[in-house]
């Protein structure tokens, strides 16, 4: 199959060269001065999911269109992956843990397909998590656990769920499936590739979910308040740092679509690194794009600095901004008609640490160690509704504490096992808080300090990071433009619709599709791309 594709691609290239030669000699010369027909020079800003996917699909679609792209990717960080990145516990490369995006799900076509094609190992999420406690999961409201679950949902736990929440646990499943199925239409014609996200969302009847809060959406669909507040809200809090009175209905459904949760062994960023390799893009790390200038012949001049030093520039036919515009610090000149609006982003504090201690039962007012859940999610206590407040964490003060894995501590006697934890919180946790969660004593003077003030014998390794991980997903009915100007494309608008690695990848693929259509059109290369054919082919290969 691959060799056949390679052969066809060779033939297309050859045809293209012949056509270009023909055009050169005749009256089409003015078109050619504007339009580089031999190949298009494309710059992609950002080597995260969106940028890597744009490059990967541009290369794939070149086989359909016959316009080979010459792709350069600019990334200001020292690494590929953006918000998907790992750090190594004790700096030991055999202990990587996710610092950013940690899971995706089996209906995520782009990530699953790419992982398979790239030969990456997909493992079930949390597969490294030791079953150290009797409880896999607990939902804490700051006073008590409103819900706990064992390592598999036993008939007894299921019975308790139904007793307490009625049919809500079943009803939510079908509501979620129904919503997800509409979303999946975005991967194929007549929707794909969509030139307007707002129009696609409307045509797919998804506005009813994005236009209202999660609380309203669930209520309209007959899900009981107690199930929403106790169970569903713990998921919107751990996934997005927001309560149901703020986050929209569609993102709430995404939080419920956790069937087949998986991750790439050794790090999800490997998908994006593999995509970039297979796109044959020229990748420029440590390269910060500072400005884009629109030239009179429709080409674009991009300025960038390497290693923070002086500015260089290059000219491109197309530029894809594959990062949240508001954090990219890119100057556009002349100023464009549509510049993406600034949207409020969540501030999330991630604390990763290793310790010889288990989580203290005392902190959670439990008597037995075995009862402390491996994964502690949170919700608001009954009767407390913080509505759409962005500072909505409430009495728990954190979003989640989870046990990730057990590692062997270096140079601390033979085979000493340490536990690795991840804490999500809106503020930097104090030493006092973390010490009491671990059940260790620290001097009074250090209570207000940071995790570094806890003794090395109690916290043996730490990595802290503040992220702007996702927007506050306020209800909305319109989304940012994808085409900001002639030949300038933007992926970030999809984050206000659904903010995940997969949706960024979908938008990258979509931009690649739109660019391919436009090249086909402007270069008059004959028949337009048959996207149904492509989507059908893709599904057969799954
Ligand atoms: C802690 C955390 C947990 C998360 N959990 C999940 C999860 O479990 N599952 C999930 O699917 N998603 C999760 N997400 C969200 C997910 O990470 C993002 O939705 C997705 O990775 C965004 O990809 P992107 O390519 O659109 O943006 P990014 O990954 O942010 O990539 C943009 C890139 O552009 C670069 N850049 C920006 N400006 C410039 C410039 N001027 N010049 C050069 N380069 C520039 C940036 O350095 C960055 O690398 C999580 C995010 C975080 C932070
Ligand atoms: C590809 O793009 C790079 C960066 O703009 C440029 O230096 C190079 O000449 C281009 N190659 C071709 C074959 O156009
Ligand atoms: C990027 O910068 C880092 C840190 O300064 C350096 O270690 C790395 O070698 C640089 N990479 C490239 C490709 O310039
Ligand atoms: C950036 O700096 C690193 C060292 O910190 C160096 O190895 C690398 O070559 C530099 N990159 C460029 C493109 O100059
Ligand atoms: C802890 O649990 C005990 C017994 O269940 C209860 O009496 C007490 O009020 C609880 N304390 C807190 C702080 O919740
Ligand atoms: C810690 O902070 C609290 C609340 O801000 C304050 O009352 C207390 O005096 C501080 N303790 C120390 C040791 O600084
Ligand atoms: C596109 O491909 C599909 C599936 O292979 C085929 O049924 C259809 O006729 C094609 N359409 C066109 C316009 O060629």
Question: What does this protein look like?
Answer:
- With 542 residues, this protein is α/β, with parallel strands linked by helices.
- Among the domains are: 40-84 and 265-343 and 475-537, FAD/NAD(P)-binding domain; 126-153 and 347-467, no CATH class.
- It has 15 helices and 22 strands.
- It has helices at 2-25, 29-34, 49-65, 109-117, 155-165, 168-184, 197-203, 207-210, 214-220, 225-240, 249-256, 269-279, 431-438, 501-522, 531-541, and strands at 40-45, 69-74, 86-88, 96-98, 104-105, 122-124, 137-140, 145-149, 261-264, 282-284, 287-294, 300-306, 311-316, 318-321, 331-333, 348-355, 375-378, 400-408, 417-425, 461-467, 483-485, 488-490.
- A seven-stranded mixed sheet has the order 8-7-17-18-19-16-20, covered by helices on one side. Strands 10-2-1-14-22-21 form a six-stranded mixed sheet, covered by helices on one side.
- The chain is globular.
- The model is unreliable at 1-34 (pLDDT under 50).
- The chain binds flavin-adenine dinucleotide and 2-acetamido-2-deoxy-beta-D-glucopyranose (6 copies).
- InterPro entries: FAD/NAD-bd_sf (IPR036188), Prenylcys_lyase (IPR010795), Prenylcysteine_Oxase1 (IPR017046).
- Residues 1-22 form the signal peptide.
- This is Prenylcysteine lyase, putative.
- Keywords: FAD, Flavoprotein, Glycoprotein, Lyase, Oxidoreductase, Signal.
Give the neighbour order of strands across the main sheet: 8-7-17-18-19-16-20
Bound molecules: flavin-adenine dinucleotide, 2-acetamido-2-deoxy-beta-D-glucopyranose
CATH-assigned fold name of the domain at 40-84 and 265-343 and 475-537: FAD/NAD(P)-binding domain
Structural class: alpha/beta
The percent range for strand residues is 15-25%
Task: Return the average pLDDT rounded to an integer.
Answer: 91
Largest sheet: 7 strands, mixed
**Total strand segments:** 22
The radius of gyration is 25 Å
Portion of residues in helices? Answer: 25-40%
CATH superfamily of the domain at 40-84 and 265-343 and 475-537: FAD/NAD(P)-binding domain
Keywords: FAD, Flavoprotein, Glycoprotein, Lyase, Oxidoreductase, Signal
GO molecular function: lyase activity; prenylcysteine oxidase activity
GO biological process, one term: prenylcysteine catabolic process
Domain Prenylcysteine lyase: 151-523
């Amino acid at each position: 199959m691959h060799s056949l594709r390679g052969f066809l691609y060779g033939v297309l290239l050859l045809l293209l060269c012949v056509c270009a030669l023909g055009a050169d000699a005749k009256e089409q010369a003015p078109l050619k001065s504007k339009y580089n027909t031999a190949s298009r020079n494309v710059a992609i800003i950002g080597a995260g999911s969106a940028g890597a996917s744009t490059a990967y699909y541009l290369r794939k679609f070149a086989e359909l269109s016959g316009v080979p792209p010459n792709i350069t990717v600019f990334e200001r960080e020292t690494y590929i992956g953006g918000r998907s990145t790992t750090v190594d516990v004790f700096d030991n490369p055999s202990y990587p843990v996710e610092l950013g995006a940690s899971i995706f799900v089996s209906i995520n076509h782009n990530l699953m397909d790419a992982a398979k094609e790239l030969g990456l190992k997909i493992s079930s999420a949390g597969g490294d998590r030791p079953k150290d406690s009797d409880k896999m999961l607990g939902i804490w409201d700051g006073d008590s656990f409103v819900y706990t679950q064992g390592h598999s949902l036993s008939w007894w736990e299921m019975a308790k769920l139904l007793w307490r929440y009625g049919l809500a646990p079943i009803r939510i499943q079908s509501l979620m499936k129904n919503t997800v199925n509409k979303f999946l239409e975005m991967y194929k014609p007549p929707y794909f590739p969509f030139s307007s996200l707002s129009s696609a969302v409307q045509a797919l009847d998804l506005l009813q979910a994005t236009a209202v809060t999660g609380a309203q959406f669930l209520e309209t669909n007959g899900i009981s308040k107690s199930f929403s507040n106790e169970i569903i809200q713990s998921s919107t809090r751990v996934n997005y740092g927001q309560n149901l009175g703020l986050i929209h209905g569609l993102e709430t459904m995404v939080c419920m679509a956790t069937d087949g949760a998986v991750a790439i062994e050794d790090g999800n960023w490997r998908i994006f690194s593999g995509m970039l390799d297979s796109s044959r893009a020229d990748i420029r790390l440590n390269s910060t794009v500072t400005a884009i200038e629109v030239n009179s012949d429709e080409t674009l001049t991009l300025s960038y600095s390497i290693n923070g030093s002086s500015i260089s520039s290059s000219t491109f036919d197309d530029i894809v901004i594959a990062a949240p515009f508001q954090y990219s610090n890119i100057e556009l000149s002349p100023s464009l008609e549509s510049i993406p609006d600034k949207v409020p982003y969540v501030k999330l504090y991630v604390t990763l640490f290793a310790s010889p201690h288990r989580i203290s039962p005392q902190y959670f007012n439990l008597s037995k160690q075995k009862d402390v859940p491996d994964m502690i999610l949170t919700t608001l206590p009954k009767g407390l509704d913080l509505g759409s407040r962005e500072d909505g964490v409430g009495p728990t003060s954190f979003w989640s504490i989870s046990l990730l894995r057990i590692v062997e501590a270096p140079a601390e006697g033979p085979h000493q096992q340490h536990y690795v934890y991840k804490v999500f919180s809106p503020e930097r946790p104090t030493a006092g808080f973390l010490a009491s969660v671990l059940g260790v004593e620290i001097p009074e003077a250090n209570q207000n300090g940071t995790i570094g003030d806890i003794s090395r014998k109690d916290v043996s390794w730490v990595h802290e990071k503040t992220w702007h991980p996702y927007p506050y997903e306020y209800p909305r009915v319109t989304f940012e433009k994808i085409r900001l100007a002639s030949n300038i494309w933007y992926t970030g608008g999809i984050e206000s619709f659904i903010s995940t690695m997969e949706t960024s990848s979908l938008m990258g693929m979509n931009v690649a599709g739109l660019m391919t259509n436009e090249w086909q059109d402007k270069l008059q290369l004959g028949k337009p791309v048959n996207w149904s054919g492509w989507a059908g082919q893709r599904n057969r290969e799954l």
